[in-house]
Amino acid sequence: MIELSEIDGVLSGATHVAVFTHDFPDPDALASAWGITALVEERYSARARIIFGGFVERAENAAMIRVLDIVCTNVADVDEGQFDRVVLVDTQPDTGNNSLAKDVTVDLVLDHHPRVETARAVRLWDVRSDWGATASVVTGHLQEAGVNVDAKLATALFFGIKTDTHSLGEGATSHDVRWYEWLFSRISHRHLSQIERPALSGEHFRVMARALSRARIYENVVVCHLGEVASPESVGEIVDLLVRRDGVDWAVCTGEAMGAMSISVRASRIGLSARALAGKLVEGIGISGGHAQSAGGRAPVEVRQVAMLRRMITRRTLAALGLGARRGERVFAAG
After folding, report:
1. What's the CA gap between 9 and 29, in Å, rounded?
2. Tens of pLDDT along 133-170?
3. Model-level pTM?
4. Residue 22 lies in a domain
5. Could you tell me the residue range of the domain that residue 253 belongs to?
6. Alpha carbon distance 290, 159 (integer Å)
7. Which contiguous run of DSSP H or E holds residue 223?
8. Are both 178 and 275 inside the same structural domain?
9. Domain ends where: 136, 170, 196?
């Protein structure tokens, strides 16, 4: 396990630190990045900036940024040459899910996903794949460093752990439980409520209606192809809903945005592996990653190839789960 003194070794003397998350960051990524900026600014007296590609559209995630006043920057608005240190949080080099330039040396990686082999130079790895959330790792470093974790930062870190572990119900370890409880006494419950129950846009309901009309069930599996979406976050939001249908063990949802197909996979029971299924779905055509019950992938696609790729994802899903070719039934039929 990486000690704070080792992080001192790579960040001491820094003046400007870039803290990259994966593109379209989730609460764990946002909270962890904000925690690292607090560490950098208080312990090393350096400036730090949270950077990612894409944008944040999911209502809860956007509310988190707005309510807690988290300052973020899109990679398109950044000159990476201005930074003398680079940190990756909740992502890793060359995974295809972040916008870090390929020629940039990484000083520190903090993550809880399985380590990915890369030829890129990385000065220090703090990857704890048995932990449930990167926010737990970051909270531990903040506590050890004596950094002031105020109510807003505590709320962000708490929400990051809560969402990535499904309220400690998925993949949580004793470490996650410890920091979840430590943060709980420091959070703003009013802010947490505002984040967890945000206003929903009309587009949210349009996408939901489309999903309910297009989703098909094959025994214990739901597959839904949304078509074009404004953001890949919509795909994850819909699959989270579909996997909750009674009798369903698996849900797979796709959507096209920004020249690529996003694929989200969910498993409803402990013992299943959404990560393994996601890998099979994009084998040879894209990238994947995730956890036992929540995973995803991404594959580049041209407009003329979309229909073919959707059929391929459906076939691969059914084949991987031993169901074979068959017709699906509507999950929801109006009237």
Report:
1. 23
2. 999 999 999 999 999 999 999 999 999 999 999 999 88
3. 0.91
4. yes
5. 207-325
6. 18
7. strand 221-228
8. no
9. 196
